[in-house]
Amino acid sequence: MASIERLLRRAALLVIASSLLGPGVVFLDAAVRRPPPWSGPEAYLAGFHWIQVIPPLLGFPLLIGFLLFVAGAGRLDAVRGGRVDQVPVLLLSGVYASLVSFNYIANAWYVPHAADPGAVSVLSMANPRSLCWAIEMVAYGLLGAVTWLVAPTFREEAAIAFLLRANGVVSVASAVVTLFDLAWVQTPAGLAFYAGWNLLVVAIMVLVARRFPVRAGVVASGPSGDA
């Protein structure tokens, strides 16, 4: 059981760090460098700065942290009696990882060097109508469905289970909104949602890290003391 606690704690710390650093770089860049709003691929490439590669690169540790959390939750669920059907959890997690990895690769490796302005317009997340924004919102909607599905694993940790379900509702709802208005993600409401979602994720993972400290040889227990 100690290995499960260690896995969940490490996953939580990785997600926390990535959730704070990625948006931190975005907002710091906006405050210091003040890049102009999207006006086209040519202007974007002309004003491109290397710091814009950092947020998509930080998406990879965020992705890994979420996958480690799902893996840890699956192992914990097995110990606690198998309350969750792991098949949809694994399938949705795999689709999420595939979709969001494409976004991070496109924006960190391809867009800065693209010779085709049309491709930059389609893929750059500086463009609020980018294909990658549609992919991003659908991907994190799928992750929200995963957090909803794994919530019963944490029945003994009521606050964690509640916030996992809340993330599921919020993430799926945001994907549905994007179906009708792709550009909303870079409106003031969309930016507020972005900040709020990161805070929600951090809150979940702080609770996970506190609930599952690394204690070699100690079995995590529920309120009754049962393993």
Topology of this protein?
Blueprint (H helix, E strand, L loop, with lengths): L1 H31 L8 H6 L7 H26 L6 H25 L6 H7 L7 H20 L7 H23 L7 H24 L16
Helix pairs in contact: 1-3, 1-8, 3-4, 4-6, 6-7, 7-8
Please give the radius of gyration in angstroms: 19 Å
Give the CA-based shape. elongated
Structural class: mainly alpha
Main sheet: strands, sense, barrel = none
**Using DSSP, what is the number of strands?**
0
Stretches where pLDDT falls below 50 for ≥5 residues? Answer: 216-227
Fraction of residues in helix: over 70%
Q: Topology as H/E string?
A: HHHHHHHH
The tally of structural domains comes to 1
Distance between the termini: 9 Å
> How much of the polypeptide forms β-strand, as a percent range?
under 5%
Tally of DSSP helical segments: 8
Report the average pLDDT across residues.
92
Task: Write structural notes for this entry.
- It is a single chain.
- By secondary structure, the chain is mostly helical.
- It has one domain (2-211).
- Helices cover 71% and strands 0% of the residues.
- It is built from eight helices and no strands.
- α1 (2-32) packs antiparallel against α8 and α6 packs antiparallel against α7 (158-180).
- The chain is elongated.
- Mean pLDDT is 92; it is low at 216-227.
